[in-house]
Amino acid sequence: MTADSMPPTVLSRARTYLRANGLAVGVEIVVNFAGPYLIFTLAKPALGEVNALIASSAPPIAWSIIEFARRRRVDAISILVLAGIALSLLAFVGGGGVRFLQLREKLVTGLIGLIFLGSAAIGRPLIYQLARASSLRRSPSAAAELEALSGNIYFRRTMTTMTLVWGFGLVIECAVASALVFTLSVAQFLLVGPIVGYTAVGLLVLWSVWFVRRARRLGAARRAAAEAAAKTP
Length: 233
Known about the structure:
By secondary structure, the protein is mainly alpha-helical. The protein is built from eight helices and no strands.
């Protein structure tokens, strides 16, 4: 194997991704890390911890609203995003100490995780709805192809498994973040909390990519075995 034919390394893939999405990554860092931390630090002396924490939530919530407005589509993904925005805003209603304010905001993740688990329990896995919404954005033919698979028992099992893993993953992330709320200072949690969240989602995405590829390989093997069996006299 020559150097030119070797697969790209993780580092080269990361560089390629950053070149293509560097601006978006920079905005995410400012909106979810630097912005909230700086606002809380600067506003705390004048507003106190509770009001400073509420003010620090403005950048991520505003960015979520802007992103939702830019897409201008109402589908399963948009509804989930909008629900997260609404729940985040509701988390700041009702007063209470700064710790419980942080805790209520993190419970949004846990609630979304429970929605995933509930959808799997009633036989309508949310991962399928999100995948269908994503396919509709690409092309009607991709959505039709996905819907054609909905009657396949293996496909339904894959969608249900993925929904359960995402549901439990988000609930666990909520539990870890909730424990950190009472362990770290408010300023420390503003930096560490998003890292925990991004790490959890990143791991779930990586697992999903691996699991989908595995399911496709198994599906191809089953089809090949069925074709071979049909040709056997």
